[in-house]
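Course assignment 3, question 2. Fill in each field.
Student: A.L.
Task: Predict the tertiary structure for the chain below.
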Amino acid sequence: MKSGSVPFLTGTAVAMIVFCVTAPWLQPALAQAAGPLKVAHVFDASERATIQDFAVYKDRLYILASDYIMDGPPFEVCVYDPETKSAASVFGPREIGSIEEGGYRMNVLKDRLCVMGADTSVFTGDGKACRYYRFDGEQWDFRDLHLKSGEAGAWGLHLLCIAEYKDKLYATIGTIDRRGAVWESDDEEAGWRVSYKTVVFPRDFPRMFEMIVFNDKLYASGRAQRLPDIIVDLWEFDGTKWRELDLVKGATFVWRFGSFKKHLFLSAYTESGPVVYRFDGKKLIRMKEFKDIVNGFAELDGKCYAIDSAGTLWQSTSGTSWTVALRLPKEEFVGKTDVHQRGDLMRGALMEYKGSLFVGSAVNGKVFVLDKN
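Answer field:
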């Protein structure tokens, strides 16, 4: 297996420090908001257009930025400095000899910060095209996803998410033979095996998207699979068997997950537009307050917050009823449509960090920091 490493990039020679901007043009509109939160400051996190994800690792906030979900320049990882209220670029895949067409998700796995490369442009031809990047606080390295020797299956092209469940790692991917799939591994070095795969789509680009552990089960989202007697829009795994679920009426894909108290949230796109549901493992209920696709959920001070593609921040104390907490400029959250279905809506992120909410812009690489009013 190929692997590589690079020292942690610091200093002005290799890291671009981008200082906080006051964005005075925002103040008149935001000053009218009398809700529980206010915009404390705004900073430019990256020259990349989209803030795709946040992750907290070793008490520091990391920011994943990417121009497009699959078809843009390589992603960038930045780290936030609370003292200067700015962000510094600390990693891009070109720095260790890899080229990605985007970055999708970032999380902490096995005590390392991990970034999923959405579309590796350096192909090995032997099932190692999917690549993810790891950081231990000092150095970056990477691992290529490859199937174990003798394991049948097409090699992966798009890596969307890696999650840990019952002491194993699971990866959602799109394979070169136009399937969505979930691979699993109990040893990264020894390789992966196919846990689940969808039917072949002759004209589409099916992918499995997100994963989340809820009620001791692993859930996966993705493009809806239209089978003869069922439209599969959610996948449920108990550690032994995958179950295909048909929950969201007219779904084309389920996009983001969130959880709060006893609720699993599903942000989806359907034939009639965006919808958001809550699910308790048995019953699905549509939350009619939402008219736009939700790109992130976060919890702060006993409340759940959600940011949608119109720049509206929603709040709930129960997870069942929602009210508007703050409206951010819509133009910061709806970008240019790319080649992927509704790609203009599927951008942005939300994270709680040290008592503040961080909201990632979809188009200008900005981050809004929200504090109590």
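Instructor remarks: Helices lie at 27-31. Residues 1-32, 337-344 have pLDDT under 50 and may be disordered.
Grade: pending
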